Amino acid sequence: MKNSRRMFILIEAALAVMLILVAVTMVRERNGKELDRIAVILQDSDASQWSAFKYGLRAAAEDQKTEVFIVSTEGRLSAEEERILLEREIENGADAVIVQPIPGDGTEEMLEKMEKKVPVMLVGCAASENGEASLLPVTAPDNYNMGAVLAEELLEDYGGKLDEKTIGFVSEMADSEAVQSREKGFRDTMQGKGCVIVWSVSGSGESEVSPGEQAAVDFVVALDDSSLVEAGKEAASNDLHGALVYGIGNSTEAVYYLDLGDVRCLVVPDEFNIGYQSLTEVAKSLDRSFYRMESKLISHTVLRREQLFLKENQELLFTMNQ
């Protein structure tokens, strides 16, 4: 009888200890979630083109009860500078990183090494080269499709034919996977339409190029926000020899030049959703031990001057101003 009672007491004590351990574990997990810190590394992070993206990050961080920290950067980073920033943030306690990959040899390999330490989410485009599938999750717009849609908009303005019309491409980083996909989408759509691609230039910082310094063309096609803003600025100053500007952009400056009429058509990726979805995926991976982050393909919107302030575009414009 005494042995049975002793056994009962031991079992009760063991259950009590297990209950305490479970409770402590739950408290630790809850506290850990509150302290999850996600670092974000972008090129020229204070530029207005990131306003909607950062607004999406903040909204998701609030919903997911995480802390998001955007690393301050200026201008274009090198792959080595990005590696140093990543290592620093991980050493400083980042639980995960969201990063805009820098084009170049070894970038994907470097990011894969980082991914062995903390979860890594790419934004904007993949880090892979030659059209290969990314081995890391990516939250980005359909860059090829945006280029194709931009070409379709231009064709629609001219009845589907551009006989003997000339086009020049301008971009900030020609080696970016995003830019290459956009240009390919545009070129593929324009095949057999009679137009001629005269030049394709890129540059930033000390090597910055001006589309107005190139041979005269009928259309300047800007493949990213920085280039679109520069082309809009030159069109406003009558420095493009009469060329009409079509492009891809997502800043208030890009919308400004569209509103002025210096940009004829603007394709806008949903940067708010890129920020929101990328951080949400990262938060899930931190919250669930065996969760595998998924790549997300984000939508885009076509803006024209005459449609700029329609009700359906107000939310998009609002996110750009945050």
Q: What is the compact description of this entry?
A:
With 322 residues, the protein is α/β, with parallel strands linked by helices.
Tell me what the structure shows.
- The chain is α/β, with parallel strands linked by helices.
- Helices cover 45% and strands 17% of the residues.
- The chain has ten helices and twelve strands.
- The protein has helices spanning 2-35, 51-64, 79-91, 107-115, 143-157, 177-190, 225-236, 252-260, 271-287, 314-320; strands spanning 37-41, 67-70, 96-99, 120-123, 138-141, 166-171, 196-202, 219-222, 244-248, 265-269, 296-298, 300-303.
- The strands form two sheets. A six-stranded parallel beta sheet has the order 2-1-3-4-5-11, with helices on both faces. Strands 7-6-8-9-10-12 form a six-stranded mixed beta sheet, with helices on both faces.
- The longest helix has 34 residues, at 2-35.
Strand order in the sheet with the most strands: 2-1-3-4-5-11
The overall pLDDT, averaged over residues, is: 88
Low-pLDDT residue spans: none
Extended strand count: 12
Number of H- or I-type helical stretches? 10
Order of helices and strands: HEHEHEHEEHEHEEHEHEHEEH
Q: Roughly how much helix do the residues carry, as a percent range?
A: 40-55%
Structural class per helix/strand content? alpha/beta
Shape: elongated
Estimate what percentage of residues fall within beta strands: 15-25%
* Cα distance spanning the termini: 73 Å
- How can the largest sheet be summarized? 6 strands, parallel
Radius of gyration: 25 Å
